[in-house]
Amino acid sequence: EVQLVESGGGLVQPGRSLKLSCAASGFTFSNYGMAWVRQAPTKGLEWVATISYDGSSTYYRDSVKGRFTISRDNAKSTLYLQMDSLRSEDTATYYCARLLYVLFDYWGQGVMVTVSS
Amino acid sequence: DIQMTQSPASLSASLEEIVTITCQASQNIGNWLAWYQQKPGKSPQLLIYGTTSLADGVPSRFSGSRSGTQYSLKISRLQVEDIGIYYCQQASSTPWTFGGGTKLELK
After folding, report:
1. Which pLDDT value is given to residue A101?
2. How many CB atoms lie within 10 A of CB B72?
């Protein structure tokens, strides 16, 4: 059974940093691209970043480019999202998702990030 | 960015009723369209990909179709377990974008 378990969320002040992790199991992690998708409170879904199966390629939405870094450790079957210079508009539930080519076929349960002073 | 305009924003329907949700793409995305279902308090689940293909385990009462740049999700006979929010997503080009969602409730 595919499982994706996010961790590392919490309350952080504007301008500070936070690092999210996503532990994967139930599939060969190194064979799949992975992504982060977020959902602001009572809002819709927003793609944040994507990384290729081997970590060689990364893609970001413009609003997080230069502030967020997606990475992975295939030996540990873990996906990461380093979030720097956080803003109030980054407040959201962050989901880790497995990529089936360009689709999100499995999602984690999500982790809440609140950016507030 | 490709805009995905989803309608209606909310929908109230009776059990066994036919339900249709639409998504209008701002430009040609071919068949690079997926639908997701998010049940209350849960994470989204892939429902349909490639405009018409059902994901594993999805009941056959769900179907997808396309007319030009307008995409539709149809539930042929609404069941209690279908309640939730539905999102379309274009996978034609980055940034991948989602529709605003359709909240489906029971009448």
Report:
1. 85
2. 17
